[in-house]
Design brief:
With 544 residues, the protein is an alpha+beta fold. It is built from 17 helices and 24 strands. The strands form 5 sheets. It has a 7-stranded mixed sheet with strand order 10-11-12-3-13-21-14, covered by helices on one side. It has a 6-stranded mixed sheet with strand order 16-20-15-19-17-18. The protein has a 5-stranded antiparallel sheet with strand order 1-6-7-9-8, with helices on one face. Strand 8 and strand 9 form a beta hairpin.
Amino acid sequence: MINNLKSKIKLPTKASLYALLAVSTLGSVMPSAQAVSRQDTLVVVSGGSINSLDLHRTGTNRPSYQVAINMYDRLVTFGIKDTGDGNLKYDSETIKPELAASWEISDDGLTYLFHIRKDATFWDGSDITATDVKWSFDRAVSLGGFPTVQMKAGGLVSPDQFSVVDEDTFKITMPKANKLTLPDLAVPIPIIINSDVALAHATKEDPWATEYLHKTPAGGGAYMLERWNPGQQLVYKRFDKWKNGDLPKMQRVIVREVPSSATRRALIERGDADVALSLPAKDVKELQANKDLKVSSSTIDNTIHAIGLNMKFEPFTNKKVRQAIAYAIPYQQIFDVAAYGMGEPLWGRKTEKATSPIWPQAFPYSTDLVKAKALLAEAGYPDGFTVPISINLGFSQWTEPTALLIQENLKAIGIESPVNKIPGASWRTKALVEKGLELHLKNFGGWLNYPDYYFFWAYIKGHLFNSMNYDNAEIKSLVDSTLNMPIDDKQYTPNILRMVDIATDEVPMIPLWQPSLDVVMRKDVSGYVNWFHRQLDIRAFTKE
């Protein structure tokens, strides 16, 4: 018997200078918008630099994910909810149609049938078919790297699992049931590409057309590419024949890259920009009092700012050293100075053992330099040692003040920790690919809102976001057995509690706080949604 899920399913003063900068920054993009009024144009200023228009391509960075979200469709998407304080946030428990008008899942969870909207077309006017879906899924699981591992988390590992029933029906066959399969189809990775266009530009050396799609999107999403000037701006124009959701209100969206956060703040205050991203928490806090602006701020699901202790390096192979550092951290000072009190603290839990299977949750460490010093002596380092603390300059607004506060407290227990500043462009390679940074500040957010999914990425040896080189056989076994497990299984909660307890005791990663996602807008702008991927979904924006 088949369960027809149809439309959705519930699942477990420098004003003068700033003025000059504002004109020089945005003046070059507005002439191209002459045919579209300012009222119908959204201007976004961002600190991130897009390096590719192809999410599947090796080396594509996080700011580039916005292209997949806005220019391509997925079969399904998450719902959107009001958090009760006027902010909008994705709903991790609700799956809704996007390209798929409806779908069915067999009772055993092994077969998925997706019925594609009959009126859906690509930008070139050709129909979107199950053949395009299969080619796109085949590409996602075959190119390797992060996209392929992300698909693997949902049990999608081989092209053999994907088949075309007919041009309107796409089938997925699973080797075993997996609670993450359907939600994994709503993340940015499984985009639907116009396979005819891609194949026309494929070569024997490049069968998946990565070089072509790197600079030339081929999709059917709500927005098309008008212009991309790397390092400067990305200009979107609306695809007026988009049928896979409500047609966006904004006809054109200009995403301008402005590295200086002070300049971004000036532009949004002056009204030369409609939306400002990645402003420091201090600025966000202050701008909340500006009557011409409004701020959206809410925590990011399954996301942690933390300290990583790399177990490839000798001092950190000793658990007592790691625990000593956990007791040496000035948590409250960091939260006040680096986070400006925005987000959720992740320290000072009153119980030694976890009592709830939620994640993130506070660890039972708090600042205790006497205890930290004693543990360091027990570990054989009574006089301490020297280790650099590495930070990502791409997130300097929180990493630099955090590192300096940690440096001060570590010195009090005998550990010298010079700050190693790494440019944002090099961070992913050094921290995540090479995994060569000893003590480092890190951030990771799991796209699917399950504790076991976070542990899959961040606590399993060899996985991308395990920058600590942590290896624990019990954690691996627990993750392997829990990842596919329904949350109502009687073993699910005990497994999660055990994972948290091991991570707490062995502390290869020291949680600091769960960050908030803060976006500043002009008061006439609405429709911003806090998404797990932390990138801008421009489709819901409106202006009064």
